[in-house]
Design a protein that fits this description.
The protein has 245 residues and is mostly helical. The protein has helices spanning 8-53, 55-60, 62-74, 86-91, 93-115, 121-132, 141-153, 178-186, 195-202, 206-218, and strands at residues 118-120, 159-163, 166-170, 192-194, 223-225, 234-236.
């Protein structure tokens, strides 16, 4: 016996049921979104109250300032996004990072001939504190990274790069490749490396090692030392010098 085909009424009923389910799902989603938005807005207001009460701690204590930045990030608030508005007026953090950014630019430009536009965070922080005197509260490496990030967004050629456990500020335009970063990591402990070291320890070909080192030397990021007693040409990286000398 042939199976009866579903009637028009049954088809329309099924279509209506699906539309009702879809509408209900949209209603639930909108309600959940509204609840989340209200919770975030409440949290934002509490964060503003917290910031007002602890304004001095946020400005003077780098560790406290770092925790506050993390709290802001969790709800999508960026106190550095504008020099106007509540955050700048209540905290002055916009001015703090703007002034720090200007100071970083001045220091990097003044030392570029010596280090080729590459400086460790440790040296940068010492120079910031030394040039600021008593007018600058303590500055953390996290503060430096945030200020440099803002400079990078302006297309100024500033960027943070990592060499092993060290962070460096690059103040010259141009992207560094993975090979360049690997060389920095290799030279982290001694501040120098050589063609032979890269070939032996990394398994690189002479062409690859030489091209990478020649590029860094041409950019002024490495100093070529041909006076070693062993006859080996050493490549020194002043940006990795721990004593800033």
């Amino acid at each position: 016996m042939a199976r009866r085909r579903a009637g028009l009424g049954a088809i329309n009923k099924d279509k209506l049921d699906k539309e009702k389910y879809a509408a209900k799902g949209t209603e639930i989603a909108e309600l959940q979104f509204s609840n989340v938005s209200e919770q975030l807005e409440t949290f934002r207001k509490h964060l503003e109250q917290f910031a007002s009460r602890h304004k001095n701690d946020i400005k003077k204590d780098p560790e406290f300032r770092g925790h506050f930045q993390q709290m802001c990030a969790r709800i999508g608030v960026d106190p550095l996004a504008s020099s106007k508005g509540f955050w700048a007026q209540a905290l002055g953090v916009g001015d703090f990072y703007y002034e720090l950014g200007v100071q970083i630019i001045e220091i990097c430009l003044a030392t570029r001939d010596r280090n080729g536009g590459l400086m460790s965070f440790d040296e940068l922080r010492k120079r910031v504190l030394a040039t600021s005197g008593k007018t600058r509260q303590d500055v953390s490496e996290d503060d430096l990274a945030r200020a440099i990030k803002k400079l990078h967004l302006l297309g100024s050629g500033f960027a943070v790069i990592t060499a092993g456990s060290h962070r460096l500020v690059q103040s010259v335009p141009g992207e560094l490749s993975m090979d360049h970063s690997t060389v920095f990591q290799k030279a982290e402990a001694t501040s120098y490396t050589s063609l032979e070291i890269l070939m032996k320890d990394l398994g690189w070909t002479e062409q690859r090692a030489r091209a990478t080192l020649d590029h860094l030397a041409a950019e002024g990021m490495a100093w070529v030392d041909q006076q070693d007693n062993s006859g080996t040409v050493l490549y020194w990286f002043p940006g990795l010098f721990s004593d800033g000398s």
